[in-house]
Amino acid sequence: MCSVEPSVAIRTQISLPMDGCDGPATLITFTGFARQQEHFVLRFGDIHADPAPLVRIHSECITGDLFRSQRCDCGAQLEQAKAMVAAEGGLIVYLRQEGRGIGLYSKIDAYRLQDQGLDTFAANEYLSLPRDGRDFTCAAQMLQALGVRRLRLITNNPEKQRQLADAGLDVVGIVPTGTFQTAYNQRYLDAKAKLARHWLDLEPACRNEEVVAVH
């Protein structure tokens, strides 16, 4: 969970040249998080020019972001968002909330249960863990520390929009990410669409896939 105290402040800024980008990004770290958490921001271009900057709030997914696992759509969403903000200017807010906040090892345990038939949310609950333990309050605090009050949010997740609005930010537009289906993530995406109401454009074969009910 993220700190709810209004104490988040910029700690360090460094230039970070990256593949696929015309110029370097700026990597920004912060102080003031609970339990010495290490969330960070990648800033591309001018974030204060009109219209409001593009912002992607991305929760860590080591299997998807680093190893490009096809069990989820996280790595593909991150790469798409990076291309978008690098081209137009904006921010990637990277939150160290692996596995929807349950941690890497618990996520792997949940994967094992998914292989046995549970959907992504029911697997977490079977482990006595929250369906989605993420808190985007810290993302709002990081944006506020950077002077961002208005933004266009890159997301398919209505919960991110709600939490940012509750924290006092003005989400003036939603820019959807792609729907990245693979042979291995169709039930995962279908569960997100049906049970968490993510805005996903799923192919009929995916929509008809059976989802194990959450108990």
TrEMBL record:
GTP binds at residues 56-60, 77, 98-100, 120, 155, 160. The keyword Nucleotide-binding applies. The active site is at residues 132, 134. Residues 23-176 form the GTP cyclohydrolase II domain. Zn(2+) binds at residues 61, 72, 74. Binds 1 zinc ion per subunit. The keyword Phosphoprotein does not apply. Pathway: Cofactor biosynthesis; riboflavin biosynthesis; 5-amino-6-(D-ribitylamino)uracil from GTP: step 1/4. InterPro entries: GTP_cyclohydro_II, RibA, RibA-like_sf. Keywords: GTP-binding, Hydrolase, Metal-binding, Nucleotide-binding, Riboflavin biosynthesis, Zinc. Its EC number is 3.5.4.25. GO terms for molecular function: GTP cyclohydrolase II activity. It catalyses: GTP + 4 H2O = 2,5-diamino-6-hydroxy-4-(5-phosphoribosylamino)-pyrimidine + formate + 2 phosphate + 3 H(+). Pfam families: GTP_cyclohydro2 (PF00925). Its cofactor is Zn(2+). PANTHER family: 3,4-DIHYDROXY-2-BUTANONE 4-PHOSPHATE SYNTHASE, GTP CYCLOHYDROLASE II-RELATED. NCBIfam families: PRK00393.1. Catalyzes the conversion of GTP to 2,5-diamino-6-ribosylamino-4(3H)-pyrimidinone 5'-phosphate (DARP), formate and pyrophosphate. Belongs to the GTP cyclohydrolase II family. This is GTP cyclohydrolase-2. It comes from Variovorax humicola. The gene is ribA.
